[in-house]
Specification:
Blueprint: H1 7-10, E1 17-23, H2 29-42, H3 49-69, E2 74-80, E3 86-92, H4 119-124, E4 127-133, E5 136-143, H5 159-166, H6 173-182, H7 184-196, H8 201-212, E6 219-224, E7 240-243, H9 249-258, E8 272-273, E9 288-297, E10 300-310, H10 317-354, E11 365-372, E12 382-390, E13 393-401, H11 405-424, H12 429-457, E14 474-484, E15 487-495, E16 501-503, E17 509-511, E18 530-534, E19 539-543, H13 545-548, E20 551-552, E21 555-556, H14 562-568, H15 575-589, E22 598-605
Helix pairs in contact: 2-3, 3-7, 5-7, 7-10, 8-10, 10-11, 11-12
């Protein structure tokens, strides 16, 4: 007789969930790792909220530890076992930098750690350890199913609300100890998430003050150092000042301006004594303690954080350690915000250089342009141009490069100047596309040859994904306009681009070109062009696929000739109104903002 299974045996066994990734040793790594692991656990059935919270804290600490003390690329591997236990491993390429002992001992490296370090991991994990290999080390931790069974540790809610609910009241040492035992780990993990989500250093410093005052100190101030200059310390007044009593802020700021922090030599984040500004804090603040923390990320000093408490001879060690942990995360967030700002500035400069400062005015033709890159901080893959070519000719182009960012900028920076040069040299439309196609193919060949030489020089080691030459495809609608009495002659060609449409005054819409191959794909491709006359009132509409492929669920804007139908409803409108109506219809077609770059050009014969 078969045995009757127990309830536990009859239940389906959980399937093991696992994943992994490689991240650069940058300030953005902790936030990226938390997001990846959180998404993986969200897809796993039966995972408790407490285990997710504990996993976020452990992942944050291990990755932050690798960023601060190793600084190399790191490999992160995680798995949720069938038993419900969660295991995470973080490996780096700096084995000489040993992690600090969780009970407070110092590590093998020179800079002592006064913060929580791996103590957080030791608290939440049922086991953890370090594995050394040649040229690498891995720190791993195993969390029990359901997380740590500690009824005194509440699960975090919204980030700032939890920090406020669990924070101690100032001046109460017993409150410090109680709170640090109950909720400091959750506070630190939630603070990490808050700081990692900010891309503006001013917002980072604002959050810093909200997290510290009055929870951990009566007042605090942040001095930021300018990366463009090399200083032995910070000078001048603080960038931000907070006090539990707002009417003391200005007096405190004036006092701090006279006493800028003077950090000791070396890159150490451990707290140092700071002169007490008692005269600025009133009778109740005549005595107290202040500490200065250097904000360091990536081996560079970014500023100094100063905190103070009134009426106490010193901060509890647990508070100084917690603030030091927090200051490291503040420094990482400031470093990430500055890196983002640098990239945004470079992208904006690139974008300005890749697009014309103004479009040309053509006799007898009115024009209107809509250009909306979906990523405001990076170079778009779409571009346009409208310029005089001499001999009574004007040329226009609307293009779309495969991809975005630097690779797209390279192609646009190559294509747009060559379009102008070839047009002004007298080459006609089809000849321009022939030569531009060959130019892109030659450039790709040169890039592949350079990559092969680099591979040989590197001893045949494989090239990392994304480091090799990228295929550079370009879709382009290019044309030439020649005004004459009674109209405009238009010669144009489409290379893998959405076909242009002509709107007549009576509302009739027709296609103005035939499809041809993308540029940069086929060697020795021969392109052809079509010629048409635009009569007064005729409008030529040129768009990128950000218009035609705008999605609403499974439908696209141009399904069933949707763009032609939209254009036919624009009969009698000016070029500007046509452009604006099409733009609005595209935006209204789907929910939210468009997910692709959007460019459209309207040319109307007057």
């Amino acid at each position: 007789m078969a045995a009757i299974p127990t309830q536990r045996e009859s239940e389906p066994r959980a399937r093991e969930v696992h994943g992994g990734t490689t991240l650069p040793g940058s300030p953005l790594a902790p936030g990226s790792a938390r997001a990846l692991v959180r998404a993986a656990l969200a897809e796993a059935p039966g995972v408790s909220a407490r285990l997710v919270d504990d996993a976020m804290a452990v992942v944050s600490e291990l990755v932050t530890n690798a960023v601060v003390h190793a600084g190399t690329d790191m490999e992160i591997v995680w798995r949720l076992e069938e038993t419900g236990a969660f295991v995470v491993e973080v490996g780096d390429q700096h084995p000489s930098r040993a992690p600090r002992d969780p009970l407070g001992g110092e590590g093998a490296y020179d800079t002592p750690e006064y913060g929580r370090g791996l103590r957080l991991v030791g608290t939440l994990a049922e086991s953890w350890g370090v594995t050394y290999r040649a040229g690498a080390k891995t720190v791993w931790a195993r969390l029990p199913p359901g997380g740590v069974k500690d009824p005194d540790t509440p699960a975090p809610d919204a980030a700032l609300e939890v920090a406020e609910d669990l924070a101690p009241q100032p001046h109460r040492a017993c409150g410090d100890r109680d709170w640090l035992g109950r909720g400091a780990l959750s506070f630190l993990a939630e603070a990490s998430d808050l700081l990692a989500g900010q891309l503006d250093e001013n917002l980072v410093t604002a959050l810093t003050g909200q997290l510290i005052v009055p929870r951990l100190a009566d007042w605090c101030a942040v001095w930021l150092e300018d990366e463009a200059t090399v200083r032995g310390g910070v000078g001048g007044g603080p960038d931000r000042v907070w006090h539990a009593s707002e009417n003391r802020i200005e007096e405190l700021r004036c006092a701090l301006e006279k006493e800028p922090p003077c950090p000791s030599d070396g890159l150490r984040s451990s707290p140092e004594a700071y002169p007490w500004p008692g005269h600025a804090l009133g009778p109740q603040g005549a005595d107290g303690t202040a500490l200065a923390y250097r904000l360091i990320a990536g081996g560079r000093p970014l500023g100094t954080l100063v905190i103070g408490r009134c009426g106490v001879p010193g901060f509890p060690d647990e508070v100084t350690g917690l603030v030091e942990d927090l200051s490291r995360r503040v420094a990482l967030a400031i470093g990430a915000a500055r890196q983002y700002a640098r990239q945004a500035t470079i992208s904006a400069v690139l974008q300005r250089g890749l697009l014309p400062g103004a479009v040309a005015e053509i006799p007898g033709v009115s024009s209107a342009l809509v250009y909306e890159p979906c990523d405001k901080g990076g170079p778009s893959g779409d571009f346009y141009d409208l310029f005089p070519a001499g001999d009574g000719r004007w040329c226009f182009a609307v293009g779309d490069v495969q991809g975005k960012g630097p690779e797209a900028a390279v192609v646009i920076g190559l294509a747009r100047p060559w379009l102008r040069l070839l047009a002004r040299e007298g080459y006609r439309v089809a000849d321009v596309l022939d030569r531009l196609n060959q130019l892109l193919l030659d450039d790709a060949t040169e890039a592949a040859d350079a990559a092969a030489r680099a591979l040989v020089a590197a001893g045949g080691r494989p090239v990392a994904p994304g480091d090799g030459p990228q295929t550079r495809f370009l879709s382009l609608l290019y044309g030439e306009l020649t005004p004459y009495d009674g109209g405009v002659r238009c010669t144009l060609a489409s290379a893998g681009h959405p076909l242009p449409l002509v709107l007549s005054p009576d509302g009739t819409v027709r296609t103005a070109a035939r499809p041809q191959t993308l540029l940069g794909v086929v060697e020795d491709e021969t392109y052809t062009s079509e010629t048409l006359d635009l009569r007064p009132g005729d409008s030529l509409l040129c768009v990128t696929d950000g218009v035609t492929e705008r999605r609403s669920g499974s439908c696209q804007f141009d399904d069933g000739d949707g763009l032609a139908r939209a254009l036919s409803g624009c009969a009698g409108l000016s070029a500007e109104l046509i452009a604006e109506r099409i733009r609005r219809l595209v935006h209204d077609f789907g929910r939210g903002l468009p997910e692709d770059d959007l460019a459209l050009l309207v040319l109307q014969a007057e």
